[in-house]
Amino acid sequence: MDAFASLLDRLYFTQGNLAKAALVKDYLARTPDPDRGYAVAALAGSLNFAFFKRSTIKEVVDERVDPHLFALSRDYVGETSETVAHIWPENPAAPRLDRLPALHEVIDRFSAATRAEVKEYLVLLLDSATSEQRWALLKLGTGGLRVGISARFMKTILAQFGGKDVSDIEALWHGISPPYEELFAWLEGRGPEPRVNDGLAFHPLMLSHPVEESDLPSIAAGDFAAEWKYDGIRVQLVTRNGSARLYSRNGDNISAAFPELVVQHSGVAALDGELLVKRSGEIGPFNDLQQRLNRKQPSKKLLESHPAHLVVYDMLQDGPDDLRALSFIERRAHLEAWHRARHYDQRLSLSPLLDFTSIASLTDLRARADRSSANYIEGVMLKRKDSPYVAGRPKGHWFKWKRDPLSVDAVLMYAQRGSGKRSSFYSDYTFGLWSDGQLLPIGKAYSGFTDQELRRLDSWIRNNTISQFGPVREVARHLVFEVAFDSVHRSSRHKSGYALRFPRISRIRWDKPAEEADQLSVLQPLVQDSITAGVGSDIQP
Amino acid sequence: MSHPKEWMSVRPEGLYCSAGDFYVDPVRAVARAVITHGHSDHARPGHGEVIATAETLAIMGVRYGSGFCDRRTPLDYGGVMDMGPAKLSFAPAGHILGSAQAIIAHDGGRIVVSGDYKRRPDPTARAFEAVACDVFVTEATFALPVFRQPSVDAELIKLLTSLALFKDRCHLVGVYSLGKCQRVMMELRRLGYVKPFFVHGALIKMCELYETLGYRLGEIVPVASVEKASLAGEIVLAPPSALSDRWSRNLPNVLTVMASGWMQIRARARQRMVELPLVISDHADWDELIATLKDVGAPEVWITHGREDALTYIAAKLGYRARALSLLGFEEEDGE
User: Fold this and answer.
1) pLDDT number for residue A528
2) A68 contacts B146? CB cut-off 8 A
3) Cα–Cα distance measured from residue A62 to residue A42, given in angstroms and rounded to the nearest whole number
């Protein structure tokens, strides 16, 4: 596993996705099966077991290292794995391997070992490794790799490695498992595309384009259907005779996180829809859904307080028929029939089609998607009635038209250096609103300005610095940003008590005096909490 | 015989020898100062008389201009000088060019103030010599068992490998201007690197001094004198403060490298956005500190600056009387 250890080490320090992808592709090209497949799984987070517990690491290090010195070191380094990696003392009397075993051998040994054997094997590996290798081993073993490679990014890298389209990888990802030997055979042109035939396959999604001003004239009311754009997460529900699977938009199987949606669906179907969360019988805003995201196994309590809800809006498979070549209207008929047969199911609803006769009435609809009446709606969708279901983002078929963002005038308080190309620029900004003559930070943004504006901001920050803490500069309270954001929520994590969603800088107000920036109290009426959710009846799907 | 604690003390100005009426590495201007080496936290301008090795005096002249003190008194390694009733001599410390341990003998007692030191070979510094004494005064910059440095060769080979892999990237290497810079240059030459080193303006004068004193650094070209685009695939050296600042903005496709003992701590390297950290230190690491306590064998150890808790603890376990002096004014963290 020495190649894997040095890959992890390089990835940890490398800035920028291009360089990270280059390192991974270089590793994949140089490393044989099955090691590279296990490496992919470890990086993408699909190696779903830990070799050993943190407590095991502590036990073995206590046997070797003076606990007082370990504690002082741990405090200084701030992290256990790294401390152990550096501090592990050589023991000339202990057995040592000439070189580290291959990654797959390490994985096999750990997964087959008893508790006592795990400890013994871990010590043998630690004794045989360099500091950098020990760190990689401990990170791998506790399942805590944090080197900036997401599952999605790994699929992109694999697609580049094999000259394939990323949607091809997504379509089969859930059906293959480490060490992915079939996948590599296909990527390298040595074998056929892996067949995923468990009947619960993921179908790559069709995506929309944002509406541009210039698109509006080409949108003839009669050619398009309109729906609400929901503020949840896009999912695909696939069912086959009693079993079901829920996928995220990238084809990750998220069934375990939403067990209430995957039980007992009769028949064979693939549905496209939006995952939301209900609170006290009403669909809640994204903030409520947030409580359920990133929890692989929700607690019973959370399942009761935040039950998942699926709004379905397209159908790709109905019984034996693949519907994707049919038009939107034809697929819609299948969807409505499917839903009619399940109208009693409280976990499901059908996304209603909205009436519109002209651009004016469309604009009117979009304006109705405001925050007070239905806070789980963020705009309207337009879908060409004759559009087939095409994976990817085909032009001219589907459009999203989000409501206008909210905005406030906030004062720049702190600036931090960016990363990669922006590492010499102060490009990450923390800004605040006034409250009793004091500024309280409400958020952070690092987008929304041009390169030219960035250069001007950077030099302004350098000339207006009050104090500096590492990469952060505190600046004089003079510069006003118009900050756009999608919504605002209460948050106990911020001193101001609010958190903004998707904040970005819409304008730099060089002209505006800081005293005239907004008061914190302007956020109060904009807050979206589930308690304020009075859902308009015509919006209820 | 009198024990050094009778005639050595800690004053606000620094470590003071009452027998000879002088300070070692004082942090404020004093009448008579013994300077162990040229780094700015040890060698400050404005003293009356400065006693140091000829190299250290030359370094101070380059840094502060010729008027950095009223009188310069050079003392060679091995030479002995009367300081009132006390006797002062120097032994090599292995830290940087000209670095010395100050050996002070008086009334049958002897103390060694080692300044900063390391035990690994360095083509720009005479190797550390262990001197028997009653009290050994040591730094503790890297005094935690997590600080265990790899070999310089292994670290520099990482840089050479990266240059081969990323031929279009300018490898910008952060080095302290005195010591680390020239050591890295000479070690790279030893490993067969023959292309010019492109350097930030702040490094030039010190490199010239090393050249004058006979250290062959090879061809050095100021970055300011060349087309920036031509630096792709080259080694550019700069002080750490210039790594990710306006100065480096126009270099082509920069890969940030930093050579420092602090690079051992991952979070610290990443915080500085260093993509290739090289653990190359001019200070003793944990194993070297312990080996030095044993080699010197002084019954009493005074610890000046750094992580004194761990060193005090281990020294006591090894049977030495250890105490922390808590001297103020020495660089923590990112200093030299």
Assistant:
1) 66
2) no
3) 28
CA B80-B85-B88 angle, 5° bins: 25
Note the helical H segments in B105-240. Answer: 152-165, 180-190, 201-212
Secondary structure (DSSP) of A200-222: ----PPB--EEPPGGGGGG--GG
The pLDDT, as a whole number, for residue B11 is: 92
Q: Which residues contact B81 (CB under 8 A, 6 or more apart)?
A: B51, B73, B75, B87, B88, B89
The structure tokens listed for B249 are 């903005």
Across the interface, whether the CB atoms of B146 and A419 are under 8 A apart is answered no
Q: Which of B158, B166, B156, B175 is nearest to B236 (CA)?
A: B175
> What local confidence, expressed as pLDDT, does residue A536 receive?
35
Domains of chain A: 2-141 (1.10.3260.10), 209-402 (3.30.470.30), 406-526 (2.40.50.140)
Q: CA A15, CA A148: separation in Å to the nearest integer?
A: 9
Q: Is residue A138 within 8 Å of residue A146, measured between CB atoms? A: no
For residues A360 and A219, what is the distance between their CA atoms, to the nearest angstrom? 12
Is residue A409 pLDDT above 60, yes or no?
yes
Among residues of chain B, what percentage have pLDDT more than 90?
86
Residue bearing tokens 């375990």? A256
Whether A15 and B150 lie within 8 Å, measured CB to CB: no
Residues of B in contact with A86 (CB under 8 A): 145-148, 264
> Each residue of A147-160: pLDDT tens digit?
888 888 999 999 99
Are the C-beta atoms of A192 and A181 separated by less than 8 Å? no
* pLDDT band for position A430 (cuts 50, 70, 90): very high
Is beta strand B100-106 parallel, antiparallel or unpaired with respect to A377-384? unpaired
Spell out the alpha helix ranges (H) of A385-470: 451-463
**A12–B256: do the CB atoms touch at under 8 Å?**
no
Distance of CA A386 to the CA centre of its chain: 32
Question: What is the 8-class DSSP label of residue A519?
Answer: B
Mutation for A interface: B141, B142, B146, most A CBs within 10 A: B146
Q: What is the pLDDT of residue A535?
A: 36
pLDDT at A370: 66
The answer on pLDDT for A529 being more than 60 is no
What integer is the mean pLDDT of B159-178? 93
Report the Cα A320 to chain-centroid distance in Å: 33
Q: In whole angstroms, what is the distance from residue A327 CA to residue A390 CA?
A: 11
Q: Which of the four pLDDT bands, split at 50, 70 and 90, describes residue A11? A: very high
Mean pLDDT over the full length of chain B: 93
For tokens 């990527």, name the residue. Answer: A187
Q: Which pLDDT value is given to residue A212? A: 77
Q: Taking a contact as any Cβ pair under 8 Å apart, which residues of chain B between 123 and 152 contact chain A?
A: 144-148, 150
Residue A296 CB coordination number (10 Å): 8
Q: Residue A338 pLDDT more than 60?
A: yes
List the catalytic residues of A.
Answer: 229
